[in-house]
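Lab notebook: predicted structure, single chain.

Context: the supervisor wants predicted structures on file for every construct in the current expression panel, including those that have not yet been purified. This is the next one on the list. No modifications to the sequence; it matches the entry in the shared construct table.
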Amino acid sequence: MTKNKSGLIHIYTGEGKGKTTAAIGLAVRAAGNGMKVLFVQFLKGGEESGELKIFKGLQENIEVIRFDQRHPIFFKKGDTKEGLINAAKEALRLIDEKIKSGKYDLVVLDEINNLIFQGWADVNELTDIIRKRPEGVEIVLTGRGASKELIEIADYVTEMKAIKHPFKKGIKARKGIEY
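Prediction complete. Output recorded below exactly as produced.
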C-alpha cells in the first residue's frame, strides 16, 4: 500500500450519536484498502463492544489498544480520577511512541476529546504528538467538547448534533446499536 502523503487530521465531535461509528467506518475502509490502522479507545472500559469483535477479524491491518478506565459517571469501586489522569498520561506516551514508529497510516483516538475537555489529558501534549507525527499519518480524534486548539490544527471537523435521542425517554444504550 502506498502511503497517503497528506496525512490529514479529522475531528468528530458534538452531542450527537455517531462519532465513534464514523471513526470505525473510516478505520474499516482504510484497513480494507491495505492501510495499517491503530485504533485507541478511551473511557469505554467494561464490556467488549461489537466493533472490537469485528476488529479481531481484521488484525492484519488494525491494531486495537483499549484503556480500561471508565468515565467517572461509570466509576466502579476502586476507580479514581487520579488513576484516570495517570492512565491518560501513560496512554499519550504510548501513542506518541506508536505513531513515531511509522507503522501506521491511520490512527484513531476514540474519546480523546473528552479527556482533553475534562482536563484529564493535556491538550499541548496531544497537539505536540500530532505535529511531530511522520509524514502521511492520518489522525482521527473523537469525543464531545473538541478543544479550540485541536479544531485549529484539524483539516476536517464534523459536529454531530443531537436532535432527538431515545436516552431522553429513559432507553439505555443497546448492545449492537450504541456499543
